[in-house]
Amino acid sequence: MQWLESKTTVILNIYVCFLYNPLEYDLLDWSYGVIIDAGSTGSRLFLYRWKSISESKLIDIHPVLDGNDNPVVKKIKPGLSSFADAPLNATDYIKPLFDYVIKYVPQSKVIYTPVFIFATAGMRLLPESAQNAILKNIRTNLPLITPLQVIPENIRVIQGKWEGIYSWIAINYILGRFNENKSEVNRSVTVGMADMGGASVQIAFELEESDTGYGNNYEEVNLGCSNNNLYRYRLFVTTFLGYGVNEGQRKYEDYLYHSVTTAQNDTSAVIIKDPCMPVNLVQLVENANTSYFVRRGSGDWDKCVLTLSQVINTSAETECSRELCFLGKVLAPKRSLSTIELYGFSEYWFSLDNVLSLGGPYNFSAVATKARRFCRQKWNSIRTHRMLYPRASEERLRAQCFKSAWIVAVLHSGFNVDYENNHFRSVLNVEGQEIQWTLGAMLYHLRYFPLRDSQRNLLKGRRHRFNGDTKGSYLILFVIIAIVLLLTKVRR
Q1: Its Gene Ontology molecular function terms (predicted)?
Q2: pTM (2 decimals)?
Q3: Could you please report the per-residue DSSP string of 203-240?
Q4: Residues contributing to the annotated binding site for ATP
Q5: pLDDT one-digit tens code per residue, 151-197
Q6: Is 163 part of the annotated catalytic residue set?
């Protein structure tokens, strides 16, 4: 009986080996990638992992989670652009990010994990010589402080429109709007996006097939790893440097100062009644010419929106009318943004939700009602009752009246979105994932990995199929031998 049990065990082990499919296990072989969003106010590191199944599908990419199921993200301040006068300190500045992330990358993957550092609006505002000095320091010294895969070409300042393209890719990927239909007629409808940062604002959306002729604001994007039409999209995308909320406030302050001092012919001790701040909030402002003036809040949100609309259109190009152009500068496509499912990121979320609690589907009447109520409060009352706004810092509360008016003015006066009939919504998380353009950047720049991995998996598949066939033959052989031996044993 022991002889029979031992032979049966051998046969079962062989059978288990035959059933085991190493190819399915190999498909769970994740690759890792690090990307840093070097923005105007700080730098944020994100860690992603991905796998590819075939060259006909997009890579399957997700944020890496820590032990508490939170995405591996780390932010440092100030922005990379603040090292314009001290470029030799740039690598030391970002070193804590790499010290942090290395523990989340499996040891066997470290040297194969690519690093991307993409600088945005803050760096774009610097002279090219200052940009190059900062980038050179990082490209030269980063390989000395991290074992991750550092390629100089992946450390650069990106154009604003690519920031918009990456955001467009990210939101549509998370929403599942990319599919494999070879005919554009059968494709899922993609959504548009508007991303309001501190220094700039970007918009991106898919063009109709007949809509052409937008020069630098047109981009054909292929998300696939081959030159077919599976994942090829025609986009209108542009960025407006100087129209983010922080740069917008500078424009507004210049407008205030010059409008008042021109009328008074006096630049000394100027105190300006400001509709874009809560009542009696006082702020000292220094101009570019080192003169000063004082903003004193009057809390009139409607007047603030009207004034900001004038600020936006003051710099309009002569050949552009408000109806035909975005922000009075760029020829708008035939398709109205009011008809597009449009998602707003960053300040569109924070300025609508942190204080007003109106993030999500946009309703102008609701926003206007709550914004008016907040702005007409006295500043001392807001500070006294700040516990009513648990998600807002004092800095946010000071700027909330202006920021909520600015994003509304840009949306309606700048992008011509209808006040009532629109499909705009502000978002922070979609499908449980925070929307970051970094996801879109990784998806785009890693798009050729399926070719590499499909070849690798093809070779493995052939090897495993051969091994499987061989194991099957051996299994049959062993079963026959076992039966023969068993019969022989019984006969004896």
Answers
A1: ATP binding; GDP phosphatase activity; ribonucleoside triphosphate phosphatase activity; UDP phosphatase activity
A2: 0.81
A3: EEEEPPTT----GGGEEEEE-SSSSSSTTEEEEEEEEE
A4: 198-202
A5: 999 999 999 899 899 999 999 999 999 976 555 557 789 999 999 98
A6: yes
